[in-house]
Specification:
Number of strands: 22
CATH superfamily of the largest domain: FAD/NAD(P)-binding domain
Helix content: 10-25%
CATH class of the largest domain: Alpha Beta
Distance between the termini: 33 Å
Bound molecules: flavin-adenine dinucleotide
CATH architecture of the largest domain: 3-Layer(bba) Sandwich
Number of helices: 9
Radius of gyration: 22 Å
Structural class: alpha/beta
Largest sheet: 5 strands, parallel
CATH topology of the largest domain: FAD/NAD(P)-binding domain
Strand content: 25-35%
Shape: globular
Length: 352
């Protein structure tokens, strides 16, 4: 979707599964009929326009929704979020007319979107309320090196700016901080995170916490109803990435057909920043608080490289690689294969 904003992909290329795909799978696709509720006793699905009865098993995979802080002035024109293809279309159209784009949020989505807007001739600024970028994927040193990369690309980042208000009359003309500072901009995109979409489950009396609660079989508190992907929470865990969605969906699908046939055992979180010219990957546990972990670093501010490995019992359980795809692949392999690294500690970050 970000590539669509950057004009590197067409709509056709952005849509992963076209109508033909559903036909090939013998799946009946019904669009524009949002589900409101499931009546679990009568096994009935209630949508905005229809009801369907007598399912054998049911999967809730409704993803997540953007988290929007309670800024004043959110209803003004030219204030956007990025979640759906329609959002991307609106933003792409708005960038054609805007002079200064403000991206509120210094996470993966905010940075990738700012780079895409820059690639099509925009003049974006990334604004974040904390001191570091990618708080979920990077530590302080990694964030510092990343800031250097972004500065070289001509991307402006403003940190420690706590936005509270969107200014302007009907149309946004900037954002204002809690300290009363203002940044001018005529396109505002809020990329401040997401929350699991738990509304259907709530309406249906299915147990939720941050996400829809599912057990090892991806079954919810309602027998025969399963949940997978961004809307689901398992053992207090939630990772909003495609590998989590596909891994949980696979387990749910197996158990919907043959209950008890597959258990979910979790996955290692893994994120890659997809900005041309920056090789940044973050895998697993990168900031442990317990003294049981050992941490190895390598940093070169001139070259713009930063590598980190978090080790427990001679196994790497988390890693950051900024500056080399080769090192990233090597560290990812070591994490996934749980390799004993006691013999290769000295050469862990060698780029060969
Ligand atoms: C711009 C962007 C870029 C991203 N890039 C990456 C990336 O590079 N790598 C990565 O791993 N992850 C990425 N992600 C995250 C990734 O898209 C999600 O983790 C993944 O799509 C989750 O899949 P899902 O099936 O759980 O939910 P979604 O893909 O969100 O699908 C949810 C579906 O449910 C439908 N739905 C919602 N409510 C209802 C309702 N009431 N009734 C009926 N249907 C409903 C929605 O229309 C949608 O079709 C990105 C996300 C965004 C927004």
């Amino acid at each position: 979707m970000i590539d669509f904003v950057a004009d590197k992909r067409t709509i056709e290329e952005t849509i992963r599964y076209h109508r033909d795909w559903y036909e090939e799978q013998n799946a009946n696709l019904m669009t524009s009929k949002p589900v409101l509720q499931i009546e679990t006793d009568s096994k009935t699905v209630i949508t905005t326009t229809t009801t369907h009865s007598n399912y054998d098993s049911l999967l809730i995979a409704v993803g997540c929704i953007p988290f929007i802080p309670p800024f004043e002035g959110l209803s003004k024109q030219n204030v956007h979020v990025i979640r759906t293809l329609d959002d991307a279309l609106d933003i792409r159209e708005a960038v054609r007319k805007s002079r200064r784009e403000i991206i509120v949020g210094g996470g993966i989505l905010g940075i990738e979107l700012a780079a895409a807007i820059k690639a099509v001739g925009g003049n974006p600024i990334i604004v974040t309320n904390i001191d570091t970028l990618l708080p979920q994927q990077l530590d302080k040193m990694g964030s510092q090196i990343l800031l250097g990369h972004l500065a070289k690309m001509g991307l402006t980042v403003l940190r420690n700016f706590s936005c509270v208000r969107i200014s302007g009359n009907d149309t946004a003309d900037g954002i204002v901080s809690d300290a009363g500072d203002k940044i001018d901009g005529d396109l505002i995109v809020i990329a401040t995170g997401v929350r699991s979409n738990i509304q259907i489950a709530k309406n249906s009396g299915i147990n939720v916490n941050r996400g829809i609660l599912a057990d090892d079989y991806m079954q919810t508190s309602a027998s025969g109803i399963f949940a997978a992907g961004d809307c689901m929470e398992w053992k207090g865990k939630w990772i909003g990435i495609i590998p989590w969605a596909t891994a949980t969906a696979r387990v749910a699908a197996r158990n919907m057909l043959n209950f008890g046939s597959m258990r979910f055992e979790g996955i290692t979180s893994s994120n890659t920043l997809q900005v041309a010219g920056i090789d940044l990957s973050s895998i697993g546990e990168i900031d442990p608080k317990s003294p049981d972990y050992e941490t190895l670093f390598s940093v070169d501010e001139n070259k713009g490289t930063y590598y980190k490995a978090v080790i427990k019992d001679n196994i790497i359980v988390g890693a950051i690689s900024l500056g080399s795809r080769k090192v990233a692949m090597k560290l990812r392999g070591l994490v996934n294969q749980k390799v004993d690294i006691s013999e290769i500690k000295q050469s862990l970050f060698d780029n060969d």
